[in-house]
Amino acid sequence: MRDGKAGAGGSAGRLTRRGLLAGLAGVAASPVAGHALGSIVSGPSVISSPPRTWGAEETPVNLPDPDVLALDPSFGLVNYGNAPLRKLWQGAGWLEGPAWCTVGRFLLLSDTITGCQYRYDPEDGPQGHVSLYRRESFNANGNTFDAEGRLVTCEHGMRRVIRWEHDGSVTVLADRYRGRTLNSPNDVVAAPDGSIWFTDPAYGDGVVEGHADVDGPANPQRHLNPYLDAELTSQYGGLRRQEDHTFRVDAKTGKVEAVLGQKDVAGPNGLCFSPDGSRLYVASSGVGPGAQPPLPDHAIHVFDLKQGRPTNGRLFTDFTLAGRAMRPDGLRTDVEGNLWCGAWGPLGLCGVFIYNPHGQMIGRIRLPVGCSNLTFGGPKRNVLYMCCGTALFSLITATQGAGRS
Q1: Most CB atoms closer than 10 Å: which of 1, 10, 93, 103?
Q2: What is the DSSP track for 108-124?
Q3: Residue 283 CB coordination number (10 Å)
Q4: Phi/psi at 33 (nearest 5 deg)?
Q5: Residues 161 and 173: beta-carbon distance below 8 Å
Q6: Quick check: bond before 226 cis, omega within 30?
Q7: Is the pTM here over 0.90, yes or no?
Q8: Phi-psi category of 382—alpha, beta or left, where left has phi over 0 and alpha has psi -120 to 50?
Q9: Minimal CA–CA distance to 270: which of 339, 227, 330, 320?
């Protein structure tokens, strides 16, 4: 779930992930913006009043938390006013794919830049503890656990979706479609019928979060060499981009089916189901390498599910706030049917947006950086975990996550 996540209007709204990181570096050079971005580490934040600090030495904030904003009375049903936002950990390259392991009672995280996967144990100390889970995950992104508790992971580097079996072996669920290799599987969810759904934009078809194409629109000048330091991925992973798709892997037959094409949702990123399984939500995020029209519209789309397939696609929200075009990312629903969405855009607007099932924004969470992905976890599934670039944040809620991570 991710990509070029900076939200903005016009051409700036089409930044790639690489452009976002470069943009942040440039913004941080200014005294004012640098002060705000540095707040993730130690300095005060310019978002709240009075300014707040983040991390182990954070100053207690007045409650309800000033950065958890109710925009409609219905938000009070899912918001727990006695809990503050917390920054739990920082130190990753780009955090993604949070998935709660019910059996192990830990949160699994992917670092798409370093290729590591991490395990966050909330019960180890007051801040919890992060440890290395897998040193090499081939630039893994999205994760989920299926009905049998098996881990399903999207790998940018190998351009495939895999499942870890209980005996430690690996099953490849999807690595090609109609004879062509995939782009860079991004986000993944388990459907109520047991099928696995994932999005396949081209955000990892570059040297930072995977490996470059050998040629074609994603590497038109052939300046990028996909074979450098990538013996395994270039041997087994794809080397040519295809159009964006959202795929379904059948639980019984293993058939890989494109249920949505680029004309339905371009730049597909986060996806999730409604609690009753009657709806599918898909975020249209940034432009991946080599993208051709139609391009992403930076909105969230919703589809009705009939016989396990999406129909009647329509706009759920244009994802604007205060007149600014924001960028949606990872998605999750709660048991009330509300949609919790990671949001990228200007400081003070970015964070998490919460919509009711009718598409009305009922609340939002301001964070000192945008949110790439999120999930509900904890023994009661009422803790919202938010991956925000290099850092992990949390918020105790009064609701529970719907379905599996």
Answers
A1: 1
A2: EEEETTT--EEEEETTS
A3: 32
A4: -65, -35
A5: yes
A6: no
A7: no
A8: alpha
A9: 330
Collapsed DSSP state (helix, strand, coil) of residue 188 = strand
The radius of gyration of the chain's CA atoms, rounded to the nearest angstrom, is: 19
Q: How far apart are the C-alpha atoms of 330 and 78, rounded to whole Å?
A: 19
Rounded to 5 degrees, φ, ψ at 264 are -85, -50
* E strand or H helix at 18: helix 17-28
Evaluate whether 267 touches 288 at the Cβ level (below 8 Å).
yes
383-388 and 391-396 strand pairing: antiparallel
Side-by-side strand order, sheet with 196-200: 188-190, 196-200, 245-249, 256-260
Q: Give the Cβ contact number of residue 9 at 10 Å.
A: 13
In order, the DSSP letters of 311-343 are EEEEEEE--EETTEE-EEEEEEEBTTS-EEEEE
Q: What is the pLDDT along the chain (405 residues), one digit of tens a residue?
A: 444 333 333 333 333 443 433 333 333 332 222 223 333 333 566 677 778 888 777 778 889 999 999 999 999 999 999 999 999 999 999 999 999 999 999 999 999 999 999 999 999 988 899 999 999 999 999 999 999 999 999 999 999 999 999 999 999 999 999 999 999 999 999 999 999 999 999 998 887 888 888 887 878 887 877 777 655 665 667 778 899 999 999 999 999 999 999 999 999 999 999 999 999 999 999 888 888 899 999 999 999 999 999 999 999 999 999 999 999 999 999 999 999 999 999 999 999 999 999 999 999 999 999 999 999 999 999 999 999 999 999 999 999 999 877
Q: List Cβ neighbours of 158 (8 Å cut-off, separation of 6 or more).
A: 138, 175, 232, 233, 236, 237
Residue 31 host element (H or E): helix 31-37
In degrees, to the nearest 5, what angle opens at C-alpha 20 toward C-alphas 396 and 34?
75
Cα separation, 140 vs 256, whole angstroms? 20
The H or E element that residue 309 is part of is strand 309-317
Q: 390 and 73 in contact (C-beta within 8 Å)?
A: no
Q: Which residues pair with 148 in a beta bridge?
A: none
Count of residues making up the chain? 405
Distance of CA 139 to CAs 65, 209, 321, Å? 35, 6, 32
Query: In sequence order, which residues have a C-beta less than 8 Å from that of residue 230 and are 6 or more positions away?
Result: 157, 211, 237
d(CA 301, CA 297): 10
Residue 261 · residue 282 · CB < 8 Å: no
